[in-house]
Write a structure and sequence with these properties.
Enzyme class: ligase
Shape: elongated
Keywords: ATP-binding, Ligase, Magnesium, Metal-binding, Nucleotide-binding, Tricarboxylic acid cycle
Strand content: 25-35%
CATH class of the largest domain: Alpha Beta
Bound molecules: guanosine-5'-diphosphate, manganese (II) ion
Largest sheet: 7 strands, antiparallel
Pathway: Carbohydrate metabolism; tricarboxylic acid cycle; succinate from succinyl-CoA (ligase route): step 1/1
GO molecular function: ATP binding; magnesium ion binding; succinate-CoA ligase (ADP-forming) activity; succinate-CoA ligase (GDP-forming) activity
Number of domains: 3
Number of strands: 18
Order of helices and strands: EHEHEEHEEEEEHEHHEEEHEEHEHEHEHH
Pfam family, one: ATP-grasp_2
CATH topology of the largest domain: D-amino Acid Aminotransferase, Chain A, domain 1
Length: 374
């Protein structure tokens, strides 16, 4: 299974490899917000599982928030080698002095892991292998023995880098091998590893895990699947964020809000997901959308059970210490248990859709009246 760059980078970082601060965005507006927060030039990177995004026009730079909005809009319409771009990773634009290539993969012919490294990073390795194979250092690791830091430094030395880089580069090679080993990877790759004033940083990250070993890395798989999933999210011009589990239900929620005189700020269909992670993501998406004053979560338990949704909501609210103006409507399969959980957690809820929509509109009006009174 292949992992998106941003997921791979989190894994690399957890093993001590430096990455750039980054944010994943799903819309041009979010891209603009992130660019504003950074307050300096950024790079916008299409998150797809195919390689060669740079060449395909999937990596772009923006100097200001306005540019970020425009470019994100373009990138989110892009299809790279048949794969639709659904989200972008935004990072601060790095000042690159030099680019290296590092990878650890399976060498089937030799039945051992192989480390490949080159001081000529950035370009695709297949290309480099064709044009100047002598520039790629290859090193087979004995999987029965521990891979030692001095071996990694030896590889760095062979890459022909300055003496000051041998130790830091060796350290990253060693860490990358550990990622490969620990995560049952088929490929763990950094191309380019960049040299900046802040030292060596993984500017790109590729991670592919052996399918047969995925059961050992469920957390990572969940994260990746979730990111791949189409989370139908539309920003509107009102102030009540409508979230529902299912497109029809979400639309009904919006209609009800409108009927009682409110204006929806979002259409967000969370689909069949009820996990804490899904609810977390849904809430943070809408809470990061500035016009939102009230969240209206409309849940009808079907295949997704109401009590599971309740658990997801409670966990998400508690984990983030979120103090949200939220109206929850909860009915359907296992509603008694879900409602009991909410009662226990002290979270109010409604059963009737009309009541819930009405309450959301009233809550929003009260907030606006208070704000106007200030
Ligand atoms: P790939 O084409 O899918 O491998 O995407 P990469 O993440 O490797 O990016 C392609 C190229 O964009 C890199 O080789 C860099 O030259 C350039 N690039 C990526 N991030 C940055 C950055 O932060 N600053 C600068 N100056 N260039 C970048
Ligand atoms: Mn790359």
């Amino acid at each position: 299974m292949k992992f998106f760059e941003h997921s791979a980078k989190k894994v690399f970082e957890s093993e001590g490899i430096k990455i750039l601060e980054g944010h994943v965005v799903y819309s041009p507006e979010e891209a603009m917000e992130v660019a504003t927060e950074f307050g300096r030039p950024i790079v916008l990177k299409s998150q797809v599982l195919v390689g060669g995004r740079g060449k395909a026009g999937g990596i772009k730079f923006a100097d200001n928030p306005g540019e970020a909005l425009e470019i994100a809009n373009e990138l989110l319409k892009l299809e790279i080698k048949g794969e639709k771009v659904k989200h972008l990773l935004i990072e601060e634009k790095a000042n690159i002095k030099k680019e290296f290539f590092l990878s650890v993969s399976n060498d089937r012919a030799n039945r051992r892991p192989i480390i490949m490294a080159s001081a000529e990073g950035g370009v695709e390795i297949e290309e480099l292998a064709k044009t100047s194979p002598e520039k790629i250092i290859r090193y087979n690791v004995n999987p029965l023995k521990e891979f030692l830091p001095y071996e990694a430094r030896e590889i760095a030395r062979k890459m022909g880098v300055g003496s000051e880089l041998i130790s830091p580069l060796g350290s990253i090679i060693w860490k990358l091998y550990n990622v490969y080993d620990k995560y049952d990877a088929e490929v763990a790759e950094i191309n380019p590893l960049i040299l900046t004033d802040d030292g060596l940083i993984a500017a790109d990250a590729k991670l592919e895990i052996e399918n047969d070993a995925l059961f050992r890395h469920q957390d990572l798989v969940k994260q990746n699947r979730f990111k791949q999933k189409d989370f139908a999210f539309v920003k509107l011009d009102g102030d009540i964020a409508v979230i529902g589990n299912g497109a029809g239900l979400t639309l009904t929620g919006m209609d009800m809000v409108t009927l009682f005189g409110g204006k929806p700020a979002t259409f967000l269909d969370i689909g069949g997901g009820a996990s804490e992670e899904t609810i977390n993501k849904a809430l943070s998406l809408v809470l990061n959308y500035p016009p939102v004053k009230v969240v209206f979560l409309n849940v009808l338990g079907g295949i997704t059970r109401a009590d599971d949704v309740a658990r997801g909501v409670i966990a998400a609210l508690e984990a983030n210490k979120w103090d949200v103006n939220i109206v929850i409507r909860l009915t359907g399969t296992n509603e008694e248990e879900g409602q009991r959980l909410f009662d226990e957690a002290g979270i109010p809820y409604e059963i009737s859709l009309e009541e819930a929509a009405k309450k959301a509109v009233e809550m929003c009006n009260e907030i606006k009246a208070k704000e106007a009174g200030k």
